[in-house]
Each structure stands twice: as C-alpha cells, then as structure tokens.
C-alpha cells in the first residue's frame, strides 16, 4: 500500500505529512485488520500470520502508528535517546525509517512516579521509535486478541470500559436467585511477572519482534538492568499482551462448572471477581484451578488480598462497592475512592492558594466532571451531594485563609453569587486572549445526571462487519447521554 495523499506531485516531507488522507489510511488499515480477525475466527493461523506480515510492512500502517504515538498523552516524553517527533517533517521521516528488518529495541528509560501512599512507582519509557513499532504491531495483534479474548474481559479493549464490567456485576448478582459468594482475585505484580516463555509459545505475534520488547531491559541511573519476566513497562502494546496471558480463564471455569453453580468471571485487566453459589465451591474448586491457571503463566495470587466474600457483606471492584441489602443490590462509589478523590481535590486547592482563582476553578472542575462521569451509572446521587459539600467547604476555608481580615459580606461579594436556588455559587472572572470577559464557576458533581449504563454485548467485536451498525448506534446513544450530562457544564458564561 502507498501513502494516501490528497494531491500529487513532488512535495517536501512536511507537506507530505500534511497532505495525508487519514480517513483513507485508517480505512485501509481497518480493512486488513478485519481480514486478520476473519482468519482468526476460522482458525486459519497461517493466513493470520501472512496478513499480519503484510500489515506491519505497509506504509499506511506505519503512518498511522506514527500518528498515534505523536498524538497521545506521552508524545512529548522522550526515551533514553532523548528524541521526540514534533513537526511534520520529523513524523514523515520517522514513518519512512520504521522497519521490521534488523529491528532492535532500545532499553526503557526508568522514571519514578509518586504513589498515594508516599512511595514511588517505577515506570519504563520506551523511545519514540520503539513506541511506534509497538503501535504498528498492535494493529496486527489486536484483531486476533479480540477474537480469542474472554467474553467478559473489559479492560484495555476497544469499545469496552469499566462501566461495562460494573454493569455485568449488576446483571449476574442482582436477582434473588443470583450467586451469593464472590472471589476477589488479586494477582501479585501481574505485569511484572508474566512468563516470557508462555507469551512466546501462545501469542499470535512475530516472535523475533516480541522478544525485542520483552528482553529490552531498562536504564536506571546510567546502569542497564535486564528483564527476564513481565511485559514491557509503559509500552502501548503491554496491556494487550497482558490480556492475552489472562484470556482463557473464563473458558476454563465454564468447562469445569455447571450453569446451576452460577460461576461467572468479570475481569478488567488484572482485576477480577468470580461469582458462585457456595463458598465451598470457590474455596475448594475454583480458587485452586485459577491458581494453577496463573502458575502456568508465571503468576501467583496474593493469599492476603484474595478474598472470598458474601454478597451481603459486599466487595470493592474498580472503585465501586457492590453489595446486597436484603434482596436489593446496590452499587455505589467505594469509600476508599471517595476519600482518595477528596484528598486529591484538597491538595490541589491547598497548592493553588496563590493561583488565579479562575485557573484553580478550571483545574478542580476537570477533576469533578471526570470523577462524576465515571460514577454516573450507579447509585451515586447522595455521594455526589456529599462530595460537592466537602469541596465547597475546602474552597471556603482556603478563601478565608487567603483573606483573614475580611468580613463574610466582603468575601461573598468578591467570590460568590447566586443563581436560581443557589445562594453561594463560587465564581471567578477572567479575560480571554481576545479580550472577552467571562466567568468560570465551581461545578457540582450532583448536576451530572445518573443514568444506567447498557452493557456491551459480550461477543461483539469492532473487527467484524456484522457489528458495525451496533457499535455506531451505541456510540450515538452514548454521545447523546454525554451531551445531556454536559449541557449544564458549558463551564463558561458571559459576564
């Protein structure tokens, strides 16, 4: 395949990049991906391998890989070579040099990110070139991964989300006759310990290239450290590889249990829960089988954190608490999630005491809307009200510290207004770059409408033409809901 340019003739590299017809490029790559998925469904693995080879050598896919890594969140973060691709010329030249022949991955650059508990989490950063190679091979591997994936795996998969996983929990636990016991699985260092041998033997991916990432190692303070297990940290393809290692658990459980035992797996990346109609079944049959399944892949479960819980006691999963009160199942934001969110908001407010109020409000507003949107599909209205009150109090304390000698009336005139039934609406005026005066106000989580999420059909895949209409309609419906929930939040109003 050749680059899809909007016009012909000789052109500079920067013009070439700017002239790419991305719709055509995307369509060409998607067409090959669908052929890969079709061959995988038919278990024609030789055909799959041939099509993957064709895709990873196509210029169209290389262009799309460069586009992906230069537009994502880490686009300005270099690897050990210090290189980033910023302008059109660099991107075009990178696409021309991207090659599988004699490819050698460079070590990752090790950095440390602060954790909530004060400790630091190590993170590996690949070079831009290695990221682009991973994106390229992800185009070839993901269609196969989608065909072979567990039906009720929801993490790091296209067209699936945590909301689908939580809705699945509701669907299998809400009835009077539903399972009463849950195994909460906790895998020790899943991404760091997956067996390289197992990945090489079972994943439908070019082994020579895969091993370049698995064995790349990392650089820390000038020293090279080898990697003998785990998926490449910080890599675009890593979540998909990890999913591939854990897929098959659902089929195993189905083969060894009966429908009357109500055994269901719900998994999001390495977090999973398994339901059953008895504690004994989970303890004596399911847990040993899962441990053996993981052991084959170089993984173990944490004895301390792997729990078997009654649904009447409830359990936390993906930041939600799932619990049955009598015969009614309620899913709410977990206490730990609420606490963590409010702590992060208070920290932003504390650090922003000298910041212009409009900028501080905008920063907090983004956090509020993001958090509320994550929980807007469950029983969260009361929690939203409480969170809004806590955030308002945190702001009010900060304002009083900022102006200790000012009266309440002065503070109200400077920082607050009323609108409708709201008497204390925190606002801040600002001026746009073109001189237009506007106002930003503190948003409320409670203004996000609570709406039930519709779970994705478990067998649907975006690489099968049969499901195109389904995903189009689903995207349209979800877009309408997002617009409805966001209509109150234009964020700005004219002064």
TrEMBL record:
Q: Is Signal tagged as a keyword?
A: no
Q: Name one GO molecular function term.
A: RNA-directed DNA polymerase activity
InterPro entries given in the database record = DNA/RNA_pol_sf, Group_II_RT_mat, GrpII_Intron_Splice-Mob/Def, Mat_intron_G2, Rev_trsase/Diguanyl_cyclase, RT_dom, RVT_N
> What Pfam families has UniProt attached to this entry?
GIIM, RVT_1, RVT_N
Q: What is its EC number?
A: 2.7.7.49
What general EC class does the enzyme of this chain belong to? Answer: transferase
Taxonomic superkingdom? Bacteria
In this protein, which residues make up the domain named Reverse transcriptase?
94-322
Keywords attached to this entry: Nucleotidyltransferase, RNA-directed DNA polymerase, Transferase
Which family is it part of? Belongs to the bacterial reverse transcriptase family.
- What is this protein identified as? Group II intron reverse transcriptase/maturase
């Amino acid at each position: 395949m050749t680059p899809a340019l909007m016009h012909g003739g000789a052109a500079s590299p920067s013009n070439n990049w700017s002239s790419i017809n991305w719709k055509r490029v995307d369509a060409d790559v998607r067409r090959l991906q669908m052929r890969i998925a079709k061959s995988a469904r038919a278990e024609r693995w030789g055909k799959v391998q041939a099509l993957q080879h064709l895709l990873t050598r196509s210029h169209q896919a290389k262009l799309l890989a460069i586009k992906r890594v230069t537009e994502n969140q880490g686009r300005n973060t270099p690897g050990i070579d210090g290189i980033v691709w910023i302008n059109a010329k660099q991107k075009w030249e990178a696409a021309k040099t991207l090659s599988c022949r004699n490819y050698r991955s460079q070590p990752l650059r090790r950095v440390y990110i602060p954790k909530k508990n004060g400790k630091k989490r190590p993170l590996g950063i690949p070079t831009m070139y290695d990221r682009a190679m991973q994106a390229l091979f992800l185009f070839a591997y993901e269609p196969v991964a989608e065909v072979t994936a567990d039906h009720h795996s929801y993490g790091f998969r296209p067209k699936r989300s945590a909301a689908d996983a939580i809705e699945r929990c509701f669907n299998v636990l809400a009835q009077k006759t539903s399972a009463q016991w849950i195994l909460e699985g906790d895998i020790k260092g899943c991404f760091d310990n997956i067996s390289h041998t197992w990945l090489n033997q079972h994943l439908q991916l070019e082994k020579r290239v895969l091993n370049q990432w698995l064995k790349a190692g990392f650089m820390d303070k000038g020293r090279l450290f080898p990697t003998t297990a785990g998926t490449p940290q910080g890599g675009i393809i890593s979540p998909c590889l990890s999913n591939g290692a854990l897929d098959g658990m659902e089929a195993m459980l189905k083969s060894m249990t009966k429908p009357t035992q109500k055994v269901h797996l719900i998994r999001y990346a390495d977090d999973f829960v398994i339901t059953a109609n008895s504690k004994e079944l989970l303890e004596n049959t399911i847990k040993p089988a899962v441990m053996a399944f993981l052991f084959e892949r170089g993984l173990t479960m944490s004895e301390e954190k792997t729990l078997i819980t009654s649904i009447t006691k409830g359990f936390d999963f993906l930041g939600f608490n799932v619990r049955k009160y009598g015969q009614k199942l309620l899913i709410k934001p977990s206490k730990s999630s609420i606490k963590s969110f409010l702590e992060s908001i208070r920290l932003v407010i504390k650090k922003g005491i000298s910041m212009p109020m409009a900028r501080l409000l905008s920063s907090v507003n983004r956090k509020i809307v993001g958090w509320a949107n994550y929980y807007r599909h469950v029983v969260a209205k009361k929690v939203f009200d409480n969170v809004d009150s806590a955030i308002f109090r945190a702001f009010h304390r900060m304002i009083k510290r900022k102006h200790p000698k000012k009266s309440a009336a002065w503070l109200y005139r400077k920082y607050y207004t009323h609108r409708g039934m709201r008497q204390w609406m925190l606002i801040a005026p600002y001026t746009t770059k073109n001189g237009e005066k506007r106002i930003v106000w503190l948003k409320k989580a409670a203004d996000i409408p609570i709406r039930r999420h519709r779970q994705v059909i478990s067998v649907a895949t975006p690489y099968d033409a049969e499901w195109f209409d389904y995903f189009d309609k689903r995207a349209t419906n979800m877009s309408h809901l997002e617009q409805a929930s966001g209509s109150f939040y234009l964020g700005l109003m004219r002064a």
